[in-house]
Amino acid sequence: MARQFMKGCEAIAEAAVRSGCRFFAGYPITPQNEIPEYLSRRMPEVGGTFVQGESEVASINIIYGAAQTGTRAMTSSSSCGISLMSEGLSFLAGARVPMVVVNVQRGGPGIGAIQPAQQDYNQATKASGNGGFQMMVWAPSTVQEAVDMTYAAFDYAQRDRNPVMILADGVLGTIMEPVVLPEPRSAEEVARLKAICRPWALVGHNPETEQRALVDSGDWNTKKMEQKCIDNAALYESWQAEAQAEELFLEDAEVVVTAYGISGRIAKSAVKLLRAEGIKVGMIRPRTVNPFPAASYEKLDYGRVKAILDVEMSIPAQMVNDVRLAVKDRCPVETCLHAGGEIMGRREIMDAVRALYR
Amino acid sequence: MEKIYSRTKLLREDMVSGFCPGCMHGTIFKMIGEVLEELHMESKVAMVLGVGCCGLAKEYVTYDNTTCPHGRGCATATGVKRANPETLVFTYQGDGDLASIGLAETMSAANRGENFTVIFVNNGIYGMTGGQLAPTTLVGMKASTAPKGRNPKEHGYPMHVCEILNQLTAPYYLERCSCNNPANTRKTKAAIKKAFQNQIEGKGFSLVEIVTSCPTNWGLDPLDALGFLEDKMLKEFPLGVIRDKSKEEA
Predict the structure, then answer these.
(1) What is the pLDDT of residues A148-160, one digit of tens each?
(2) A contact set with B (CB within 8 A)
(3) H or E element that contains B225
(4) Residue in B with minimal Cα distance to A74
(5) CB-CB: which of A69, A88, A206 is closest to B80?
(6) Is residue B28 part of a domain?
(7) Cβ within 8 Å, pair B87-A203
(8) Class of domain A245-357
(9) How many domains does chain B have?
């Protein structure tokens, strides 16, 4: 496939279409406006539907309806907009309806800053709404990775009948990079993927010959409701085997930098420069932040690793808590942080590593 | 003897209704079932249930349905209908659901002229949560969160949903009905049928408001509640067709 030069948001939107997404609803918010704008012209070309909702609250519930028909559906927003979607995400997860949600993170809390940040880690991985539900959360660090993860996210969502989140940020959303787009799914394949959902989907069943569909997040029967929670927990547990991380130079590393998303990308370039200086530094970059790739930290030789440096564009640091849980006090975990739309500098990471390496 | 009436097949026979004595939800769900059968749409229907007492019906009906977040019925229905236009989609929402927490979703879907049907059941109070003040509560009427009654200086006045929606250009059909007597009940059924037919013909947004009683939370026995409905509620919410574009087209 030919490489194309594309903006992150538009590449995510096109990857969604190629994966079979045929429904998008969303509400304007910077820095992700190019996703709805792109899909407002792209969806009609493939027989899909674009709706500009009157709010994020409405948009996620429009998706809740569309996705119930088995149609591959997506919404996108940024930080405070995702907060408004938490009600709908909880219903989607509670009723086990598949869809994909993209968070192009900005600064926070509140309205924060429209510039890039990674301030929503805890919200994305721990509590995106009420009720203790979870989503698989994929954290791309390049536009190509954002494309590949978005394309795959719809398959994970359909497999699990659960929402999947792409946790991007304002850099990835607005940067332009060369990408190779995946092959688009044919109309027949998209129809087949939808038809698979028919048994549970809200499509109109014959009450006399078929089991009717009830798409419902709740149950008044406490035993049945408890069973729902048990089934959900089993699903979340099953993801652990699918945790992914990029690992770099860990064989002889004495300091390990860990970072996800855009911070991970900046950290990777810092680590390579430090290696050129002869510094034995390695890197773990979670590609999934839920499930968290704890196994990557488990296999480190803590007789050799002096310290781990957690790099995030979030103050306070958030992923660091998952890192500490995985490291289990076997070495110090330090942080190198920025927030508020200030983008992490490579030099700062290099200085922080040198300080730990001495 | 010829059998001239039988129960709709779209309500389960193996369940006992949990609706209170004098509640009209049962009557309305029965009529919806009958209309769906008359229109031969029982295999093509998707109901979007609001949050409130009506949510009990998710287990009573034999056709596809979903429960959505409080107030979001018109957003969810927008998604269901646009994703599968051949499905007959309707929301069933109370006054707290539709006119308070869901006002934005209701207004916006109506303004877009979404091609689905809204069954709006207005009893002037929050039923399931125990009688709190609703946007439709009458002036002076007591509620558990307005123990001295609705005071316009503090709470404003009852909201007239059909009249508000009538300010918009897109809605196709708006009618206010009641189930206080057999004649009005028959009119309600005809309105529901008309609203569904509009959707089948692709005419756009139809809303049928049904003014009902809530004996439990009004603190009245069913017969007195019927009296209150006729003497007070129907004065505030007069019955009739508020908008019917098919008449304008004719």
Answers:
(1) 999 999 999 999 9
(2) 22-23, 25, 49, 51, 53-55, 57-59, 61-69, 71, 73, 87-88, 91, 95, 202-208, 212-218
(3) helix B222-228
(4) B79
(5) A69
(6) no
(7) yes
(8) alpha beta
(9) 1
Residues 6+ positions from B48 with CB-CB distance below 8 Å: A65, B65, B66, B68, B73, B76, B77, B80, B89, B90, B91, B92
Predicted complex ipTM: 0.97
Sheet containing strand A49-52, edge to edge, reads A49-52, A23-26, A73-77, A99-105, A163-169, A136-138, A288-290
> Are residues A286 and A320 in contact, defined by beta-carbon separation less than 8 angstroms?
no
Question: In the CATH hierarchy, which fold is given to the domain comprising A3-196?
Answer: Rossmann fold (3.40.50)
**CB contact, 8 Å: B67 with chain A?**
yes
Asked whether the beta carbons of residue B69 and residue A215 sit closer than 8 angstroms, the reply is no
Beta carbons within 10 angstroms of residue A246's beta carbon: 16
How many angstroms separate the Cα of A65 from the Cα of each of A111, A164, A345?
28, 16, 43
Per-residue confidence in pLDDT tens, chain A, 358 aa: 689 999 999 999 999 999 999 999 999 999 999 999 999 999 999 999 999 999 999 999 999 999 999 999 999 999 999 999 999 999 999 999 999 999 999 998 999 999 999 999 999 999 999 999 999 999 999 999 999 999 999 999 999 999 999 999 999 999 999 999 999 999 999 999 999 999 999 999 999 999 999 999 999 999 999 999 999 999 999 999 999 999 999 999 999 999 999 999 999 999 999 999 999 999 999 999 999 999 999 999 999 999 999 999 999 999 999 999 999 999 999 999 999 999 999 999 999 999 999 8
* Smallest CA–CA distance from B57 into chain A, residue: A214
Contacts of A53 in chain B (CB under 8 A): 75, 108
The CATH number linked to B159 is 3.40.50.970
Are A51 and B82 within 8 A, CB to CB? yes
Give the domain ranges of chain A: 3-196, 245-357
For the stretch A233-279, pLDDT in tens is: 999 999 999 999 999 999 999 999 999 999 999 999 999 999 999 99
Residues of B whose CB is below 8 A from A85: none
B81, closest residue in chain A (CA to CA): A66
Q: Which of B68, B83, B88 sits opposite A91 (nearest CB)?
A: B68
Handedness of CA A112, A116, A121, A125 (dihedral sign): positive
pLDDT band at B249 (very low <50, low <70, confident <90, very high): confident
Task: For residue B86, count other CB atoms closer than 10 A to its CB.
Answer: 9
Domain encompassing residue B85: 47-245
For residue B237, being part of any structural domain is answered with yes
Q: Do domains A3-196 and A245-357 have the same CATH topology?
A: yes
CA of A223 vs chain B CAs: smallest distance (Å): 16
Task: Give domain status of residue B38, yes or no.
Answer: no
Residue of A59, A202, A206 with shortest CB distance to B46? A202
For residues B217 and B131, the answer to whether their CB atoms sit within 8 Å is: yes
Q: Which residues on chain A are in Cβ contact (under 8 Å) with B75?
A: 53, 57-59, 61-62, 64-65
